[in-house]
Amino acid sequence: MAVSWRFDGNDLLSGVGDGWDEYALSNEGGACVPAPLGRSLADFTSSSDLCVVWQAILGQARRRRGRPVILTYRCDAPDERRIMRATVTGHPGGEVEIVSSLQHYQPRPPVPLLAQPAGAGDELIKMCAWCARIQADGWVDVEEGCRRLNLLEADPEDLPAITHGICEDCRSAVMRGLDPSPDRELAEVTHGG
Predict the structure, then answer these.
(1) Domain layout of the chain by residue ranges
(2) Rounded to an integer, what distance in angstroms lies between the CA atom of residue 189 and that of residue 64?
(3) 34 or 29: which carries more pLDDT confidence?
(4) Global pTM?
């Protein structure tokens, strides 16, 4: 399933594709149904560093004049690792469309931390929005992070909520792939954990 959304030239959400509601509801995003049109890109990012990266991506897409920026990232579910692809395309008037689709997935035993609804607990744990690693004495895969933080056997109500940012490795990889030249061919910016 592909899901799409559009930002206008001022980085305000200007539209979403047909599958938006279904996708949002199946991924704990009920607060985004109906789509919160008119809201700023900054409203959809939980950290300033992640917002800066997305602003750079949207800027690159606008400069490329219709030639898309392709990004690969992880967006895991509690019981599967998911590799996603985002195609980010600039359109006339400064509008940018993002189409995200599942490339492949790998089943795994459920990770209770990933089943937490947004804002579930008072404690927060930071997850990279690109590689799905969490911060636990460094950036590590979610299963290893849960082991390090003693979360594997924790009661669901004692689990921290997840907030998203971007790890240094992914930030460097993404920003390195964004070139200010609109003529540079950018096939893919990829980093995964």
Answers:
(1) 2-190
(2) 15
(3) 34
(4) 0.82
